[in-house]
Amino acid sequence: MKQFAALYAALDSTTRTNEKVAELTRYFAAASADDAAWALYFLSGRRIKGLINSRKLHTWAIEGAGIPEWLFGECYDAVGDIAETIALLLPPPDLTDDRTLTQWVEAHLLPLRRQDEAGQRESMRDAWRRLDGTARFVWNKLITGGFRVGVSQLLIVRSIAEVSGADRAAVAGRLMGEWSPSADFWHMLTAREGTERAPSQPYPFFLAHALSSDAGAAAIEAALGDRALWQVEWKWDGIRSQVIRRAGQTFIWSRGEELVTERFPELAAAAERLPDGTVLDGEILPWDATIDTVMPFAQLQRRIGRKTLGKKILSEVPVIVVVYDLLEESGVDVRNLPLHQRRTRLESLLHDLDDPRLRPSPIVSEPNWDALAVERAQARATGVEGLMIKRLDSPFGVGRTRGDWWKWKIEPLTVDAVLIYAQRGSGKRASLYTDYTFGVWDENGVLVPFAKAYSGLTDEEIGRVDAFIRRNTQEKFGPVRTVKPELVFELAFEGIQRSARHKSGIAVRFPRILRWRTDKRIEDADSLATIRALLPPETT
Amino acid sequence: MAESLILVTDAGLYCPIGDFYIDPWFPVPRAVVTHAHADHLRWGCGSYLISADGLHVTRARLSDDAAIQTAAYGEAVLLNGVRVSLHPAGHILGSAQVRVEYGGQVWVITGDYKTEIDATCAPFELVRCHTFVTESTFGLPIYRWQPQRTIFDDIDSWWRANRDAGRASVIYGYALGKAQRIIAGVDPTIGGIYTHGAVERINRAYRESGVQLPATTYAAAAGKRDWGGSLIVAPPSANGTPWLRRFGNLSTAFASGWMSIRGARRRRAVDRGFALSDHLDWDNLMRVIDGTGAESVWVTHGYTAVVTRWLTERGIDARIVTTRYEGEAIEAAESVESDELTDPVIAPPASDGIAGIAGDL
Hints:
The complex is a heterodimer.
Chain A: H1 2-12, H2 17-30, H3 33-43, H4 54-65, H5 69-79, H6 82-89, H7 101-109, H8 117-130, H9 133-144, H10 153-164, H11 168-174, H12 183-189, E1 209-211, H13 217-224, E2 230-235, E3 239-246, E4 249-254, H14 265-271, E5 278-288, E6 293-294, H15 297-304, H16 311-316, E7 319-329, E8 332-333, H17 339-353, E9 358-360, H18 369-377, E10 386-391, E11 405-409, E12 413-424, E13 433-441, E14 447-453, H19 459-471, E15 473-477, E16 480-483, E17 488-493, E18 495-498, E19 506-509, E20 512-516, H20 528-532
Parallel strand pairs in A: 1-11, 7-9
Antiparallel strand pairs in A: 2-10, 3-4, 3-5, 5-6, 5-7, 7-8, 10-11, 12-13, 12-16, 12-17, 13-14, 15-16, 17-20, 18-19
Helix pairs in contact in A: 1-2, 1-9, 2-10, 3-12, 5-6, 6-9, 10-11, 13-18
Chain B: E1 7-9, E2 12-15, E3 20-22, E4 30-32, E5 47-51, H1 55-59, E6 68-71, E7 76-79, E8 82-88, E9 96-102, E10 105-109, E11 131-136, H2 148-164, E12 168-172, H3 178-185, E13 193-195, H4 197-208, E14 217-218, E15 231-234, E16 250-255, H5 262-267, E17 272-274, H6 282-292, E18 296-302, H7 304-313, E19 317-320
Parallel strand pairs in B: 3-4, 4-5, 5-6, 10-11, 11-18, 12-15, 12-16, 13-14, 13-15, 16-17, 18-19
Antiparallel strand pairs in B: 1-2, 2-3, 7-8, 8-9, 9-10
C-alpha cells in the first residue's frame, strides 16, 4: 500500500508525460503481479462498486475527528473532495502497517461488500488508524471512486509495454472490456505472444481530431487537400458504441467501456442476426421512425437514466445504431484494411441483414469542400453536430491519433448572459467560485437562470471573477451565492431544446463560457425571446 | 460602561485613548505595525511604531523619509498614557504582537503569527490578556502542519533529484519572510542558491539585521551559466513569466500552507507544493487561544466565521473582525515584484488602496 501511495504521490506531483511513464514503469517493474494488476485496475479508473456510500464515510469521519457536522462542511468546501477532506481531518495514525496493496484489497476492501454497517465502520476506522497522509487519501479514493491522477490509458499502455516488452497495440486490446485484476491477468496482459481474447472483448475506439469549428472551406482544403481522398459522414450526437456478435452471444459496449447490452434490448435483438464473429462500430441514437429522423439527445438521456425499461419508454424512445465501421468480419480483425474496403464490406453485410435498427452511416457526397461547408452550415437543422472526415485509405486505429480522422463541428450557438449565481468548484478549483449560473432577460425584465457553465475562463480570469463574487455577494443559500448582476459573458452551446424541467423552458447542450464580455453591460445581455428563436420547430 | 480600549473603525483597529491605529488600512497619523507585509504595513502614515528587529525590513518597504520609531521586544512605550509593548509573533523577522494596556485592561493583537520555531526570527511569545485579537488564516482543522524538518527534507530531496537530472530548481515563496526561511532551512551543500531581486533585497535587510543566511547570489548578476543543480528562490509572481527562461530546464515548487490541499497545488500549476507555512495550524491556534487566558477573542484575517463559531460553541466570547482582506481569498492578486535590486519602495496605494496582498503567499 505504501508503494502504491508513493506512486500516486509521484504521479500527482508531475505534469510531465515522460516522468509519469517512468514512475509507472518503475512501479510495475518492482510490484508483484497481483499488486501490479490491482494498481492497473484502479489507475485505469475502475472501482469495486457498492462498497460504502460517502454519506456513511462522512459520518464515521466526523466521529473519528471529533468535530461537528457544520465544521466538516466548511472543511469540505475548502478541499472540494470527500476522500481528501477525511484524510486531512482525522488524527495522525497510531498504528503502522506494511501490507501490500493486494493484501489491503483482499483483507479490507473486498470484505466490505459482505459486512454489515457496524463491520464496515470498524474496518474503516481500523484502516484510518493504520494509514497516513497520501495512503489514507488513496484508500478513501479506492472506496469512493473517482480515482483520477492524470494518467491516461495511453500512458498506462506505454509503461506496461515498456516493462514487459509486449506490443503496445496488443496491450491496449487486452485492456479493453471486462477483466478481473489478478496475477494471471497481469501475466496474460504482459505476454509477448498473442493470447486468447474473451468473446466479449471490444477493440479500442478510434477517435477523430477536431478541426477548428470556425475554419472555412479554404482552410479545410489547405489542411486536408483533395476532397476525393476522403469519406465524409455526419457527426451524430448519441452514444458511441461497439456491437459484438461472437460465440453465439451479443455484447454492446459504450465508449466509456461499459457493457450496455441490457439497456438496449431492441439492438441486442437486431444484433443476434449478425453472422458470428462480427464487430461493428457505430452510434446509438434515439430515432423517430415515423419521420425517419434522429430525436434530441435528451430523449436518449431519459432512457439511460432508468434502472428498468418499461414498455412505455421503449416505445417512446426507440433506438437504432448508425453503423460507422466494420472491425471484425467472420472472426478476423479487419481494422487494418483501408476504410473504403471496410465500408464496402460493411454495406454488403448490413444490406444482407436488412434490419432498420442497424443501418450504415449515410455518406455525405457533396463533391467539394465548398459544398460540404454549405451542408455543414445546415447541419443543426438535421439534428447532427457537424461532419466527420475520414481518409479513405485509413485503418481503424487506436485512440486519438492525428491525421486520418477529423471532426468538423458546427459553429456553436452563442448567447450573452449575466452571471447571477456562483458556487465553489471542486477538485482543482476547490475554494474558488468557478461554478456559475447565468441568466437572461425574460418578458418582465427579470433575469431568469438559463444555463450553468464551469469552463472556458483562464486561471487569471477565474481569480478576478472569484474576487468579484466575494465582494458582491447578495445572499447565500447553502453553498450558492447570489451575485450582484454585473458581469456579462458570452456562452456557447451545441444544441438547444425545449424543457419543462428548466425555469427558462430551455435546455442547452454543452454550455461553456466563450469569453468574458467586459465591454457589455447587463442591459446588453440577450433575452429569452431571442433565445427561443433559436429553438428548432416543434415536431409534435 | 466605558468605551472599549480598541475599536474597529473604517481604517482598521483603533485605540481612541492612545490615539493610534494598529495595522491601519489607510494612511493615518500614528500607526503601530505588527510586521512589514503589505496587508499590514500601509504606505503614507505620519509615524510608525515597529519592533527594533523589524527596522531594516520595514525600511526596505517604505520611503526613506518615513518616520519610524522602534521598540525592543517587551519594552513599554507610553502613547497618551496607554502602555504599548511589542512581543515576538514568530511570523517573519521583526513581526510582533501588540500588547495594549490601560486601566487594568490588557489587549493583544497578534498580526500574523506562528508557534513553530523559525531560524530567521524571534520565537513566538505567549502573552496573557483579557481580549485577544487573533488571525485565522488557516482556521480549519484540515490544516495540520508537518514538522518543518520533514518539509525541508522533502524540499532537499526534490532539489537533489533535480540536480541529478541536470535541472534547475525554482522555488516560490513570499519575498519577505518565506523566502529567507527557505534559504535558512535547506541544505546548502546540495548546490548554489540564487535569488530573484525581490528576494535578494530582503535578504540584505535580514543580513543587516544580523540574521545568518547561507550565501545567495542575485540571479540576474550571475551571468550566463548552466543552471542545472541550482536552487532559485523567487516570489510567486515570477511563475510563468519570461524571467524564468534564463534557467533552461527546470522544475518549479511553491512553499505555502495552502499547498497541503491537493486542489490548491494543482491550481498553482507548479510541479511540487510544499506545505510550509508562516501561520499556525488549527491545533496550535486553539492551544494559543486557550493559553492567553483571554475572556474575549476577536477573530480576523481568514476563516473568521468558522473559528468564531467553534469558540462560541465552547462558551468563549468570540466575534468576527472584518478586514479589508478576505483571508480565504487565497489566490488574491499578488503584486508583481520587480527583479531590480534598487527598487526598495512599495508602490503608493493603487486606486483601491491595496498595494499588494501578502498573506501566506
